[in-house]
Input
Amino acid sequence: QKEVEQDPGPLSVPEGAIVSLNCTYSNSAFQYFMWYRQYSRKGPELLMYTYSSGNKEDGRFTAQVDKSSKYISLFIRDSQPSDSATYLCAMSETQGGSEKLVFGKGTKLTVNP
Amino acid sequence: NAGVTQTPKFRILKIGQSMTLQCTQDMNHNYMYWYRQDPGMGLKLIYYSVGAGITDKGEVPNGYNVSRSTTEDFPLRLELAAPSQTSVYFCASSYPRQGEWADEQFFGPGTRLTVL
Output
């Protein structure tokens, strides 16, 4: 079983839809959970992060972590064509540096006008 | 700030050739990383460095070498290029944080390498 599993999609939704992106993981020591967004032919950029369990909201984006189920989610409300990108989950046991991030494979999202 | 810059943007190599991918950051970050990204495969860590003069292997180091003589620069060397090294290479940097702050890695725009 891979440490981090993420459905690669692709996922195609109409503008205004609610999007749900998910990852599962096997390492119970993970404490930091991140979502990176990667536009086509660009480097990833950090979108949101959550420490330990719980929810975090930032505008149209909500990140959820369920450590008991080893499951994390990113919800996008009122999706826009500009949200079209690949979304990668990432997680680590500590704050990074010598502790490496483990990335999911990424889910490619297309929001159609 | 320019952030993380990478050169070249694109390169085609013949099997057996060598090259160096350049990476520079102007954010004074201690930590730097090299990843490769294959289609549908996510990011795989090749090498990383926690400071000048200190480097360590990641998940897929074979066929690559790195050096870190300054805080700003972290070049990746490919010796004897092989078709399996065809990929997009990303350099990233980060800085130590405390408490509940996650490690935000800042990525460069990538180098697209094809080995024929």
Q: What stands out?
A: Residues 41 and 96 of chain B are 27 Å apart (CA to CA). DSSP finds no helices and eleven strands in chain B. Chain B has a mean pLDDT of 92. The longest strand of chain B covers residues 43-51.
